[in-house]
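Input/output pair, single chain:
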Amino acid sequence: MPYRDGMSARTRSEERRAEIVRATLEVIAERGYRGASLAAVAERVGLTQQGLLHHFPTKEALLVAVLKERDQWDAVPDTQWRVDLLTSLVEYNAMRPGIIQTFSALLGESVTEGHPAREYFTERYTGVRQTMAQALRAQYGDRLPNGLTPERTAPLLVAVMDGLQYQWLLDPESVDMAAAFRDFLRLLGEEGGPDA
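Output:
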C-alpha cells in the first residue's frame, strides 16, 4: 500500500511540474523571460510562490525545464534528419505560434551577458549546425550543387529557419514561412516545391 501511495504522489508531482512548465511557457510568451515572474507563474497554476519553489527552486531551473520540454516536442534522432523533412518542420512551427514566440523571445534575450539560457542556446546551436551538416552531407555529399560544403551551408540553413520565424511572428499575413523556406532550398540546389 505505501508503494502505491508513493507512486501516486510521484505522479501528482510530475503532473504538477508539467502544468507549471506549460504555464511558464505562456507567461514567457506574453512577457518575455525577464518580465516573467515566479509569482505570475504561481498564480496561473493556483500555487503560492513558495509552493512553486518546492517544484523548481529558482527561476533559472524553471527556464531550463521549459527549454528541455520544448526540445522534447521537436525531438528527432539526429540520424533521421533529412533536408526534405525540414520543410515539414517549418510548416509544423507555423501551427504553434505561442511556442515559437516563446522560443524566439528567449533566444533574443539569451544573447545578453549572464542570461541563464545563454549556455543552453550556445550548445543547442552547435548541435543543430552539426545535425544540419550531417543531413546536407547525406543528401549532397561533400559539396552542394552551389559549391559550398555542408559545414559552410549549415549555419545559413539555420539562420534562414530562425530568421523566417522572426519575420513570420512580426507579420504572419505577409510571410509564408514554408514557401520562403522551399525557395531557399531551391537556392541550395534542392529540387521540388510547388513553384519549381
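The longest helix spans residues 2-35. The chain has a mean pLDDT of 84.
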